[in-house]
Hints:
This protein has 100 residues and is mostly helical.
Amino acid sequence: MDINAFNAIKTYGAAQKTLTPGKPEAATPGGGEFKPLEMAKDFVATVSASENTAAAFMTGKADPHSVVEAMAAAELAVETAVTLRNRVVEAYQELLRMPV
């Protein structure tokens, strides 16, 4: 098993925990506290790794399978960030609609 497959399995397992309703650890990945700075660093690292893998593929140093995996991980990270941003904006708009 290569390292990319192991990372994919680990990420899938963490995602399954967050999607399982009714469990106390479902609030955040791994059951810990919410850490936005670490999440932002992970986001940047994921997108950067995807860009580096794509660049390595263009120079012939990476296989197509690893590029597809990296791009899928980057797509998931961007979709998650956009969803989080949308929820924050919705919450802010809800606060603005409250009577004073």
